[in-house]
UniProtKB/TrEMBL annotation, chain A:
Its main location: periplasm. It comes from Salipiger bermudensis (strain DSM 26914 / JCM 13377 / KCTC 12554 / HTCC2601) (Pelagibaca bermudensis). The keyword Signal applies. Keywords: Periplasm, Signal, Transport. This is Probable binding protein component of ABC transporter.
Length: 349, 271
């Protein structure tokens, strides 16, 4: 009890200095939702303040929710493929489907199989993109980047950075080894150890979003495995040579979704927030957030985005990209632990 | 009189620490925390090669940083205390601690730019013909050590300077009268008398360095993981609060041992 109380207090005070105020909406988010350009119109329209707390990794987000009191959090951004995990633990509230704008979505981005559990919708996708290869086309041969083989060929040893998130990178290593992300279980994982260690040895660093952007922008590395438009788009104005591609083996589709947290005391306000973020205007702002860019799930955002923004997002190529991308691995608890152990081994050796 | 201090310690140290120890005795079943009283997490720390290595990585970095920082800070403090005219000392100290004025994170990212292959250091070395081509410093342990040393030299300079400035010049004069050379005065008289300042600064450096997450994360390139990085990995990625707590307890034990090792020299009243 003592532990739970302490953790609860820590979790709440970490991001919720004013959680008790009536006119606040408390959101567990990824960094793209912290952009004032995105939040301000909603705050002004509803005369509320959106308090955000960033988290990294679904496991951490779910733990935060479980250590908090009901009502501490109102909405949550979560990987679309992980919605089921959250629902299983009773952490998300049902969403009224009639209020969602999924009719104008890219069909592949709806991901109803993941956001709906037993016929009830718990989350709505809001943004998607790809974990694949990002590179500096002034420093590498773009033709090489059309195959993942190039990263294991030795040609780019010491010039590669690895994006520090085990799920997409293990997925990409799996694609290189001929293992589809859907087949990535504990047994298949062992076959990835050797190529992962080789990749680790060939890389210069393993870095988070900011570290990866810095390394690519400063020329510290020329290739980033796990990168994509979400990483290079914000740097496009500074360095148009930073590019990305989906190699012939394929790439991974990431899709983030928005959900109402079970126990919220402001379900109407939370729903309004979701409706705003998934509206064409909200989607355009989210797609071009200062933290990272990504494709809006709602196609209608194309009417709001400029041609230049759509070009950077490769709007017209989405049909091809979506056809070639695979979803993130969805490991069970045992496989997830094995994946993280393998990832830690790669970092530490 | 001591009641407020005791209450403060109880509320903000003893209770949280007890909670952390209790959490370290729990374990994960799948994605759930199961309360318990087993030492499985501690056993894993010392048997899992990746976790065990984290302890050694942290200790190696911390010891190297502490030694280098002391070696650089002592002469700097001595010069400021004895060679800089009194009216300029304040300015000299101000310049010495100037980097404290910037954000720790910003300073680390600045070092990342400076130490990069196309950064100031490599450009200068290659430009001067001292290197044929850039070598990798960024994303190595060396970068982490440089980032730490830059920070802790300032801290140590302050603690050693405050010790030096209190020493009566009569000690040096007496030694010189008795025939000691300048070097002997420094080595046999001044240096031992500044041990409290050195050890206090070194202990603070040890504690702050071994518990730091930012510098190795930004400058080390994640090519090896220190203890705080492993703790963050358990919290941020795995949601494994029990293992994070166990690693934190190990960190506390290391710091306690370090304190025990240098307690006899830690005389704060001498600063």
């Amino acid at each position: 009890m003592l532990i739970k109380l302490t953790c609860s207090a820590l979790a709440v005070t970490a991001g919720l200095a004013s959680a008790a105020q009536a006119e606040d909406l408390n959101a567990l988010i990824w960094c793209d939702h912290a952009d004032p350009e995105l939040l301000q119109p909603f705050e002004e329209a509803h005369d509320v303040r959106v308090n955000v707390k960033e988290y990294e990794g679904t496991a951490a987000g779910l733990t935060l929710l479980e250590q908090s009191r009901p009502g501490d959090w109102d909405v949550m951004v979560i990987d679309a493929v992980d919605v089921g995990r959250a629902v299983e633990r009773g952490l998300l509230a049902p969403l009224p489907t009639e209020d969602l704008a999924t009719g104008s979505y890219f069909p592949e981005a709806v991901l109803a199989d993941h956001t709906t559990v037993d016929g009830t919708t718990y989350a709505v996708t809001e943004k998607f993109g790809y974990n694949t290869i990002a590179y500096n086309k002034a420093a590498v041969d773009p033709a090489d980047m059309e195959s993942l083989d190039a990263l294991w060929s030795g040609k780019y040893d010491g010039r590669i950075a690895i994006y520090d998130y085990y799920l997409p990178v293990l997925g990409l290593v799996g694609l290189e080894a001929g293992v589809a992300t859907a087949d990535l279980d504990a047994a298949a994982l062992e076959t990835l150890r050797e190529p992962l260690m080789k990749l680790g040895a060939a890389s210069k660093q393993v870095s988070d979003v900011v570290g990866s952007q810095t390394a690519l922008a400063t020329g510290e590395v020329d290739v980033l495995i796990g990168g994509g438009e979400w990483l290079t788009a914000v740097l496009n104005a500074e360095n148009p040579d930073l590019d990305w591609t989906i190699p012939e083996e394929g790439g991974l589709l990431w899709a983030q979704s928005l959900a109402i947290v079970e126990g919220t005391e402001k379900p109407e306000l939370a729903l309004e927030f979701i409706k705003y973020v998934t509206s064409p205007e909200g989607q355009a702002r989210l797609a071009t957030s200062s933290c990272y860019w990504g494709m809006p799930a709602n196609k209608a955002a194309g009417d709001v985005l400029s041609d230049e923004q759509k070009a950077i997002l490769r709007w017209d190529d989405q049909a091809d990209y979506l056809a070639r991308a695979q979803l993130y691995p969805v490991p069970d608890a045992e496989t997830d632990t094995a994946m993280q152990d393998l990832w830690t081994d790669m970092l530490q050796n | 009189m001591v009641a407020p201090a005791l209450l403060w310690t109880l509320a903000f140290f003893v209770v949280p620490f007890a909670a952390m120890v209790m959490m370290s005795l729990a374990h994960m079943e799948g994605r759930d925390i199961v309360q318990g009283h087993d030492l499985g997490n501690y056993l894993k720390i010392f048997t899992d090669p990746s976790l065990r290595r984290g302890i050694f990585v942290s200790l190696e970095i911390t010891v190297v940083v502490t030694l280098i920082s002391v070696l650089l800070a002592w002469p700097l403090a001595w010069i400021i205390a004895t060679r800089v005219p009194p009216r300029w000392r304040r300015m000299a100290l101000l310049l010495a601690v100037l980097p404290f004025w910037t954000s720790y994170v910003v300073r680390s990212y600045s070092w990342a730019l400076v130490l990069g292959e196309r950064g100031v250091v490599m450009n200068a070395l290659v430009g001067l013909g001292l290197l044929a081509e850039p070598v990798q410093i960024m994303a190595t342990r060396a970068a982490t050590v440089i980032g730490f040393v830059h920070f802790f030299v300032m801290l140590l300079t302050l603690t050693i300077y405050s010790n030096l400035i209190q020493l009566s010049p009569n000690y040096a004069r007496a030694a010189e009268d008795l025939g000691a050379s300048r070097w002997q005065v420094i080595r046999l008289v001044i240096l031992p008398l500044t041990l409290p300042g050195v050890m206090t600064g070194a202990f603070l450096t040890f504690v702050l360095c071994i518990g730091d997450y930012i510098t190795p994360q930004i400058l080390g390139g994640n090519n090896e993981l220190s203890l705080p990085q492993l703790i963050m990995l358990q919290l941020g990625r795995r949601g494994d609060f029990p293992m994070a707590s166990a690693l934190s307890v190990v960190l506390m034990v290391i710091v306690t041992l370090a304190y025990a090792g240098c307690a006899r020299w830690l005389k704060m009243e001498r600063l």
